[in-house]
């Protein structure tokens, strides 16, 4: 009852307003072009009125945008004499006039807070929004006949660099008007101009988000003209990386038509579509819309193609999807893993990198996925990514993916048998800094599996490279190298190889300098020295080293591991130097 009373109250107020305004004059009775211009002025007045509203700010902002777009289309039409010859304007003008008066009434209620209920007002605003959408579609249909004269097909000059925001807004508004009312040739020209300005100046992305009609741009993705569709996907891929545009594209439901382009478009359109989907799905909240509209199937089909320009961004989208646990399970059921393993073998390098990152995510938390990857030859494919012919970025992604298999005994044999240790040796010898951290972390995990894996690493000649990395600039690389050495030296055969070089023991002792405060690093070095003291030759090398003083100083500061090493040392020379407390 309350809602009905509120509606009656608004009706009465509306009748009073209508009486004060007088009966709406039909502009068509005099001059259709004048009527269109009068509508443009009225829209500006209504837009100004909406800025005084005190509630439902988001809805009113959306309504202002729609009024602005409608005004732009009408303003363009008012400049063409042949617009008055189109009989469909006679229906549009009074309908828009009525909606504008309705909008004024709602704006007044939201300014004076005189509405009777929030739910009812929200419903009224939704009705208003729907009417504006209807008018815009009506205007689009009127313009489909191509009322633009030939001389208007020439696009206005692009603002020079450093132009005012007003000039940029005008130029973008003009381009979108041409998209809406122009024929196919004019649409293509406008889209080309949009893609060019976006490539030259990223500031135009924000201008488009504030001035352009994103809903209409998204509708062009379903254009029957292949050229228009292709150019539209290029524009969308350019703006999809900007947050302001990204949210508008999602609101305009851009993902479903982008999927359709990926399925049926030409090569360039498919590439741009996949790139757009990649940028949109960097936000994990958007991945659900893609899966709900059959995007996984379309992406799988694209990844099976030999066209690297399409497979790389398609694989990147699947990588983004794999960041969501529920979707990982869905993709595993859809058979994505074999496709990505195959992409590692035969795809272009960019696609291989995304495939590697995808497999890393899929294998990270699911044993079933790891087993499927191994059965399909995924480990060998990942190891092939580590070859010197690959870029540093590719090798880095390969090492990171392989890490997910390095903690389990069941994958030790496939890893070692694939030549992984040799690739690590070649990589570390190359002296490249990028990729050292994931390579060492993988090596450390393998070393901790069993004595067999420790022996394999020692036999591969990796201990010498680990000693060199103890001087690395990266604290993580230094610590990981020290921890790996500590693990390897627990094996007697590795200790014998390590002690064959006098330099190795001296290096460990030198790095115990008390002035260096890296405690974890020293802890791993001391652990390695404890292992070395298990043999007579190891104890002798420590005792005879000129760097023994660093070990002594640590022991004097009550470092437990240092005291353990000292206690295990033997020999008269040493005993004459050290205090009896080390025997305690």
From TrEMBL:
<dbReference type="InterPro" id="IPR011989">
    <property type="entry name" value="ARM-like"/>
</dbReference>
<dbReference type="InterPro" id="IPR000225">
    <property type="entry name" value="Armadillo"/>
</dbReference>
<dbReference type="InterPro" id="IPR016024">
    <property type="entry name" value="ARM-type_fold"/>
</dbReference>
<dbReference type="Pfam" id="PF23005">
    <property type="entry name" value="DUF7032"/>
</dbReference>
<dbReference type="Pfam" id="PF00514">
    <property type="entry name" value="Arm"/>
</dbReference>
<dbReference type="InterPro" id="IPR054296">
    <property type="entry name" value="DUF7032"/>
</dbReference>
<protein>
    <recommendedName>
        <fullName>DUF7032 domain-containing protein</fullName>
    </recommendedName>
</protein>
<feature type="region of interest" description="Disordered">
    <location>
        <begin position="1"/>
        <end position="32"/>
    </location>
</feature>
<feature type="domain" description="DUF7032">
    <location>
        <begin position="39"/>
        <end position="147"/>
    </location>
</feature>
């Amino acid at each position: 009852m309350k809602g009905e009373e509120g509606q009656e109250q608004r009706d009465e107020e509306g009748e009073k307003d209508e009486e004060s305004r007088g009966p709406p004059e039909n502009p068509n009775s005099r001059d259709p072009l004048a009527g269109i211009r009068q509508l443009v002025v009225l829209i500006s007045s209504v837009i100004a009125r909406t800025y005084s509203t005190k509630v439902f700010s988001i809805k009113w902002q959306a309504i202002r945008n729609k009024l602005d777009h409608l005004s732009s289309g009408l303003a363009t039409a008012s400049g063409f004499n042949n617009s008055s010859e189109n009989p469909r304007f006679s229906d549009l003008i009074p309908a828009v006039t009525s909606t504008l008066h309705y909008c004024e009434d709602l704006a007044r209620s939201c300014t004076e807070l005189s509405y009777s209920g929030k739910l009812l007002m929200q419903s009224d605003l939704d009705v208003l929004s729907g009417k504006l959408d209807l008018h815009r579609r009506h205007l689009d249909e009127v313009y489909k006949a191509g009322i633009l004269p030939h001389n208007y097909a020439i696009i206005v000059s692009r603002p020079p660099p450093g132009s005012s925001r007003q000039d940029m807004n005008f130029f973008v508004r003009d381009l979108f008007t041409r998209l809406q009312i122009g024929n196919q040739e004019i649409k293509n020209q406008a889209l080309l101009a949009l893609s060019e300005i976006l490539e030259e100046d990223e500031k135009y992305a924000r201008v488009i988000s504030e001035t352009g009609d994103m809903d209409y741009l998204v509708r062009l993705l379903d254009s029957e003209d292949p050229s228009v569709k292709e150019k539209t996907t290029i524009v969308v891929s350019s703006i999809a990386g900007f947050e302001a545009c990204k949210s508008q594209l999602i609101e305009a439901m851009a993902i479903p038509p982008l999927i359709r382009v990926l399925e049926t478009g030409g090569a360039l359109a498919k590439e741009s579509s996949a790139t757009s989907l990649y940028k949109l799905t960097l936000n994990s909240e958007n991945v659900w819309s893609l899966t709900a509209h059959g995007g996984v199937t379309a992406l799988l089909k694209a990844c099976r193609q030999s066209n690297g320009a399409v497979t790389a961004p398609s694989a990147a989208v699947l990588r983004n999807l794999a960041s969501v646990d529920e979707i990982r399970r869905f993709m595993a059921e859809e058979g994505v893993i074999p496709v990505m393993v195959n992409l590692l073998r035969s795809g272009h390098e960019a696609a291989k990198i995304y495939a590697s990152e995808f497999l890393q995510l899929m294998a990270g938390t699911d044993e079933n996925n790891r087993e499927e990857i191994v059965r399909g030859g995924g480990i060998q494919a990942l190891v092939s990514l580590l070859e010197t012919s690959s870029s540093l970025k590719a090798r880095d992604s390969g090492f990171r993916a392989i890490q997910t298999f390095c903690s389990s005994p069941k994958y030790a044999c496939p890893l070692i048998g694939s030549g992984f240790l040799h690739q690590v040796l070649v990589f570390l010898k190359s002296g490249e800094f990028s990729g050292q951290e994931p390579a060492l972390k993988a090596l450390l995990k393998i070393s901790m599996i069993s004595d067999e894996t420790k022996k394999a690493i020692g036999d591969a000649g990796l201990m010498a490279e680990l000693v060199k990395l103890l001087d690395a600039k990266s604290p993580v690389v230094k610590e990981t190298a020290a921890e790996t050495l500590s693990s390897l030296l627990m094996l007697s055969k590795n200790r014998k190889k390590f002690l064959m070089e006098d330099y190795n023991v001296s290096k460990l002792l030198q790095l115990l300098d008390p002035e260096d405060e890296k405690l974890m690093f020293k802890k791993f070095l001391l652990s390695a020295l404890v292992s070395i003291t298990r043999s007579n030759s190891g104890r002798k090398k420590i005792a005879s080293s000129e760097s023994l003083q660093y070990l002594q100083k640590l022991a004097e500061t009550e470092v437990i591991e240092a005291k353990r090493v000292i206690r295990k040392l033997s020999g008269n020379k040493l005993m004459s130097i050290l205090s009896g407390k080390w025997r305690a």
